[in-house]
Design brief:
The chain contains four helices and four strands; from the N terminus they run ββααααββ. The protein is an alpha+beta fold and about 100 residues long.
Length: about 100
């Protein structure tokens, strides 16, 4: 299983298995984006994990992380259990040359 991590300068932070990251993105899409489609969830799914958050986006990104945390805490594990199987399939489809591409 591939590991997902982030690097910034000399700092490397390993977050865990790629399947867990994909599951997190699936949950963001199915739970948070459905609850509040007007919010800019791309700050979490695109900017934060693929690129960087601009300084003027930091407060909104922090608010979205808190909102996602709040929504996840109210969501039953049964309601997102089906996403686990989809995540396995996605991981197989997105794995190319030993790397996971999230997007």
């Amino acid at each position: 299983m591939k590991k997902v991590g982030f690097t910034r300068g000399a700092l490397v932070v390993e977050l865990g298995p790629s399947r867990d990251m994909l599951f997190c993105f699936n949950c963001l899409k199915s739970v948070c984006e459905r609850q509040c489609p007007e919010r800019n969830w791309g700050l979490l799914t695109e900017r934060l994990f693929k690129y960087y958050v601009r300084q003027h986006e930091a407060d909104e990104t922090n608010e979205l992380m808190q909102e996602a945390h709040d929504q996840f805490s109210k969501t039953s594990t049964k309601s997102v259990a089906c996403l686990k199987n989809n995540t396995k399939l996605m991981e197989q489809q997105l794995t190319a040359n030993g790397r996971i591409f999230l997007g």
